Amino acid sequence: MGIDGIPESMLACQVVEFGKPYKIQQAPTPSKLEDNDLLIKVAVASLCHTDSLIRNGLFGGKLPRIASHEGTGTVVAVGSAITDIRPGDRVMCGLPYRRCGKCASCLGPEDYRQYCPHVKGQLGVTMDGAFAEYLICDGRESSKLPDSMSFETAAPLACAGCTVYRGVVQGGLKKGQWLGIVGSGGGLGHLGIQFAKAMGYKVVGVDARDEGLDLSKQMKADVVVDARKDLKEVVEEVQRATGGEGVDATVNVSDAKSAAATACAITRMRGKLVQIAQPDEVAIPMRELIFRDIRVEGSLICSRGQGQQMLQMVVDHNIAVKKNIFHGLSQIPELVEFAHQGKMQGKGVVVVDEDAIRKEKATWVANGMTSNS
What we know:
Elements: E1 9-15, E2 23-28, E3 37-47, H1 49-55, E4 65-66, E5 70-78, E6 90-92, E7 96-97, H2 104-107, E8 121-122, E9 134-138, E10 143-144, H3 151-170, E11 178-182, H4 189-198, E12 202-207, H5 210-218, E13 223-226, H6 231-241, E14 247-252, H7 259-265, E15 267-275, H8 286-290, E16 295-298, H9 304-316, E17 323-327, H10 332-340, E18 347-351, H11 354-366
Parallel strand pairs: 11-12, 11-14, 12-13, 14-15, 15-16, 17-18
Antiparallel strand pairs: 1-2, 1-4, 3-5, 3-9, 3-18, 5-6, 6-10, 7-8
Helix pairs in contact: 3-4, 3-9
């Protein structure tokens, strides 16, 4: 039995075989809501680097699986236990699905609940995601969008924004201190620069692509360093800018083999590295840990509470998401090819529901509002 008014099938972009291209085809529309579920009519979804890891089988799981864990859309049905979100609300879909609510992570500080080891699924990672006309997500993990935020801006924030925001916060810095970001000109990095500046930090951006260096400058990093130089030269350049010490903490969002070592090298003695990138192995020279006492922490996506803080910061500080917009699920192969060329600045975004975008803009006009997008 389907949900009233919802078609029984929908267009979706699926992983049908690990290591193979996506297949765009008809799939069953989600038809059963658990008590804490939301049924979303997807407006915009975006592509993340992790999508390539998922498509290549890193996380395993059953196939076929609908791709993308960065989704926004309009609520069309709500589970019986959800009271703070209603049909018609615009939301950013949360990734965790059905945390256990009983483990140390769930019962501990709110900003660590996303680490629940018993979670039933992760949107677009181990369960169906946002490259489709409809999706199911957990209403306890999803957030209503600020009135002035567009679907197109919010979709990349569902993972890229939430992830790098937490990393910047986890650096634990005070206003006026220096934060390094390795991979500063990518989808996460360019947001990290802006979050750090909004928090009052000075930023050293490090990237190894011309496009990334240019975007780091556009985002107003205080210092931008080309990682293709000799490491000794990179370190000297950072130390000259920071009074001889290096940055106080570094967030690494690059999965390049040498990225974590570079991140440690530009960080001052007893500083912190926050590792966000997900290479198979994180390579750090012994001397950085033992002789320079660099403290290394990993960081996952942020919690719902932190995500809501992040959304408000984007609005309050007019933070810009650099977007490459594609129209329709049928254009996803072109987006994937563009991303793999390594020339893309920012995030690749797919408009799934053009009517939702038109309605959104009409609402702003009618209310005399201006979008932050």
